[in-house]
Specification:
With 142 residues, this protein is α+β, with helices and mostly antiparallel strands. The chain has helices at residues 14-24, 28-31, 33-37, 48-62; strands at residues 4-10, 74-80, 90-101, 108-119, 122-134. InterPro entries: HotDog_dom_sf, MaoC-like_dom.
Length: 142
């Protein structure tokens, strides 16, 4: 518990935001810059679905591809704190905030991870997935 990871930064272009939104979340403030300028965010913003996907992708690429991951049965929380705007650079990080052995299967551990996307140090998105991970053979719980 307490392990921290710096993840790759995120910069989404206007075209990337519009392309994703056209396919998955075609609200005017995601697909139409003119309508978005008059909308609730005062400009084009990325879909929350896109930002969660991008953040989780960074976690998987940086950590989970080298771990004994067994999938994720749940996400405890997703918080959209500020909109993600085109061409801005956002930093991404992860921290293990909880760990325990599975109650159902002693060969599995359960991690709770805090994934965070930030703008100049201010969080704009947090995601808390629950991750199943294989335990090391012969390890016993302390």
């Amino acid at each position: 518990m307490g392990s921290r990871f710096a993840l790759d930064d995120l910069v989404l272009s206007e075209a990337q935001i519009i392309d994703f939104a056209r396919r998955f979340d075609a609200q005017p403030f995601h697909v139409d810059p003119a309508a978005a300028a008059a909308g609730p965010f005062g400009g084009l913003v990325a879909s929350g679905l896109q930002t969660v996907s991008e953040l989780v992708s960074r976690w998987v690429s940086a950590v989970m591809v080298r771990a004994a991951g067994l999938g994720s049965p749940a996400i405890e929380a997703i918080r959209f704190l500020q909109p993600v705007r085109p061409s801005r650079r956002y930093t991404a990080r992860a921290e293990v905030i909880g760990s325990r052995r599975s109650r159902r299967d002693p060969t599995q551990g359960v991690l709770t991870v805090l994934l965070e996307l930030a703008d100049s140090g201010t969080p704009v998105l947090t995601v808390e997935p629950i991750i199943l991970i294989a335990t090391r053979p012969g390890r016993t719980e302390k």
